[in-house]
TrEMBL record:
Cross-referenced Pfam families: Transposase_mut
Family: Belongs to the transposase mutator family.
Record's keyword annotation contains DNA-binding: yes
Region (Disordered): 51-84
Matching NCBIfam families: transpos_IS256
Residue ranges of the TM segments: none
Family annotation (InterPro entries): Transposase_mutator (IPR001207)
Highest taxon above the source species: Bacteria
Biased composition (Polar residues): 61-70
Record protein name field: Mutator family transposase
């Protein structure tokens, strides 16, 4: 629709300064209010079946009944809009629904600010500074709580029958305990799957105070109940009871310890000045072409560092059964399992969102923010790089299980 020059000239009469157009009492705000009121009037006309100022048809007992003022909040600040009424209160406007107090996607803006890691107080200040809006903490909480319904639907959605790779990882989040009212470091676990077509998909998130075989078995059974029948390779971080829980639910799954976590755990025992050299020597272990050569490199590492860092090599040996499957894979698969770029980038997105929070008042509050971070992560791209070569290797190594 084109607005004629004559109409524009008429509208702009008396507009001499920027604030006359864009200010709180400017033309743009007034125009938006008047257009909304005109559209609402047209909706009521369609509902009643006769134009304003005309007599109602004899068969129409309902009549116009004045207006009520509703203050809407939007990017232009507060907008007082006259909402037309009818006598029997059967009018349900579509433009401004009953109970609606916000427009211009303000809910999405609040959720977006929350997802970026802003606290309720930060969001209040942002909306006041940018839009001149005064919103209560209760309103912000109600808007963000609506995300929980989406979380529940997401957490219970059906999953694929088979995933070539599922990577499990955890991060620690401070959450206030409902009973003791003390802040505890709880583990938030995320399962990141790679589909047959090379798409990254976050399968779920779980918050646990105490991890163990029982907890992990419940996670695996939940995945099975949602449709997962087979996992080809499960990459874990070496927690006690984790491999057993995976194989209890998915007996044919190959459990692979996360090499990145193994290296990081080893470097925790090193002084800063030695870390670079130790990391280079560890690389010789996991870069070896075969398990036998890797074990020889581990022997060499232990001989070199046993006196200074006696605990590193034995830790690798204790986890060796979950390390050696790595050496049976083609470099195309090794690259995906080792680098775990997907899970690392996911963790960066989550940590960026939660870093401004000292602690969360409840598990639900932490879940909301982490889910929104996951949603952002998946929107930024889901394709695994160089998947074509890895897919061919999976098809050869796992045969019917991959094609099922």
């Amino acid at each position: 629709m084109t607005i004629s020059k004559e109409i524009l000239d008429e509208l702009l009469k008396g507009v001499e300064r920027p604030e006359d157009l864009l200010g709180d009492a400017g033309l743009m705000k007034e125009l938006k209010i008047k257009l909304m009121e005109r559209m609402l009037g047209a909706e009521l006309t369609a509902h009643l079946g006769y134009e304003e100022g005309e007599s109602a048809p004899p068969s129409q007992p309902n009549r116009r009944n004045g207006t009520s003022t509703k203050v809407l909040r939007g990017q232009d600040g507060e907008l007082p809009v006259a909402i037309p009424r009818d006598r029997d209160s059967s009018f349900e406007p579509e433009l401004v629904k009953k109970g609606q107090t916000r427009i211009d996607g303000m809910d999405d803006k609040i959720i977006g600010l929350y997802a970026a890691g802003l606290t309720v107080r930060d969001i209040q200040a942002h909306l006041l500074d940018l839009y001149g809006l005064k919103v209560s903490p209760d309103l912000i909480s109600r808007v963000t709580d609506a995300v929980l319904d989406e979380v529940r639907e997401w957490q219970s959605r059906a999953l694929d029958r088979m995933y070539p790779i599922v990577i499990f990882d955890a991060l620690r989040v401070k959450i206030r305990d409902a009973d003791s009212r003390t802040v505890k470091n709880k583990a938030v676990y995320v399962a990141l799957g790679v589909t047959r077509d090379g798409q990254r998909e976050v399968l779920g998130l779980w918050i646990a105070e105490n991890e163990g075989a029982k907890f992990w078995l419940s996670v695996m059974n939940e995945m099975k109940n949602r449709g997962v029948q087979d996992v080809l390779i499960a990459v874990v971080d070496g927690l006690k009871g984790f491999p057993e829980a995976i194989t209890a639910a998915f007996p044919d799954a190959m459990v692979q310890t996360c090499i990145v976590h193994r290296v990081r755990h080893s470097l925790n025992f090193c002084s800063w000045k030695d870390r670079k050299v130790v990391a280079a020597d560890l690389r010789r272990i996991y870069s070896a072409p075969t398990a036998d050569l890797a074990e020889a490199e581990l022997d060499a590492f232990e001989e070199k560092w046993a006196e200074k860092y006696a605990s590193i090599a034995p830790a690798w040996r204790r986890a060796w059964q979950e390390v050696i499957p790595f050496f049976g894979f083609d470099p195309a698969i090794r690259k995906i399992i080792y680098t775990t770029n997907a899970i690392e980038s996911l963790n960066r997105v989550i940590r960026k969102s939660i870093k401004t929070r000292g602690s969360f008042p409840t598990d639900e509050a932490a879940t909301k923010l982490i889910y929104l971070a996951i949603r952002k992560f998946e929107k930024d791209g889901r394709n695994v790089r160089e998947w074509f070569a890895a897919r061919n290797q999976f098809a050869i190594m796992f045969g019917e299980r991959f094609d099922a």
